[in-house]
Amino acid sequence: MEFQEIIKKLKKLESRKNIEGMARFGINPKNTLGISVTTLRTIAKEIKKGTVEKAKLHQIALQLWKSEIHEARILAGLVDIPEFVTEKQADSWVADLDSWDVCDTLCMNLLDKTPFAFEKAKKWAEDEQEFTRRAGFAMMAVLAVHNKHVADYEFEKLFPLIKKYSTDERNFVRKAVNWALRQIGKRNSILLTKAIRLAEEIEKIDSKSARWIAKDALREIKGKEK
User: Fold this and answer.
1) Domain-embedded: residue 93
2) Which of 186, 184, 191, 189 is nearest to 221 (CA)?
3) Residue range(s) defining the domain that contains residue 34
4) pLDDT for residue 224
5) What percentage of residues in the chain have a pLDDT greater than 90?
6) Is-contact 165 173, C-beta < 8 A?
7) 68 and 166 housed in the same domain
8) Would you tell me how many other CB atoms lie within 10 Å of the CB of residue 226?
9) Radius of gyration of the chain from Cα atoms?
């Protein structure tokens, strides 16, 4: 399936009703067609099935992202090849983010599989841009789930950032900070104990956002204690 054919297929699936529904869930309606992620995953499988060469898939992904169409960018993250993704591309795509769903699907389907995932998570978390920072903490959460053989200390290195930016009042950031804290805590019993301790420290910070992050995380991860 060629790039133009994919775009044509996406535009045929446009739904104004779905766009309005997505907006109610905080998804940016700009350049959005209203196509569900389930449908996009099916299309991604079709693209991969019809394109054997990895280099060609990578080029299609780059074109999809450049189109600036919301769903095309989700598709780009679903079909791109991790070993072809450079740090420059990762930084550029993350800088383009303007919606939480594109951010999260990009992190959990592509960027977490790159060799520089941990370093980018830390770098992006320090960025002032809302969705770049969200990408940093979304990466931390996804890495905690997907990277089964990474040592605990790699996740402990992320604790200072979780604590520091727990005071960020922006909704899409604080939810990602909370997500990272919860997923790291659920990774194993050792990290669970340390995540609970961190959440208790965050709860004492004089910040509405920090208190919400801590209470919500503790409500979930404390139930995991044996």
Assistant:
1) no
2) 186
3) 1-84
4) 63
5) 91
6) yes
7) no
8) 4
9) 18
Residues 24 and 65 in one domain: yes
Q: What is the model's pTM? A: 0.94
Query: Residue 162: how many CB atoms within 10 A of its CB?
Result: 23
Residue 139 has which token pair? 């990466």
- Structural domain tally of the chain? 2
Q: Are 132 and 94 in contact (CB under 8 A)?
A: yes
In the structure encoding, which two tokens stand for residue 184, read together? 């790291």
Task: Encode pLDDT of 156-189 as tens digits.
Answer: 999 999 999 999 999 999 999 999 999 999 999 9
| DSSP class per residue in 92-130 | HHHHH--SHHHHHHHHHHTGGGSTTHHHHHHHHHT-SSH
> Looking at the domain assignment, is residue 144 inside a domain?
yes
State the Cα–Cα distance between residues 110 and 102, nearest whole angstrom.
11
- Whether 108 and 62 map to the same domain: the answer is no
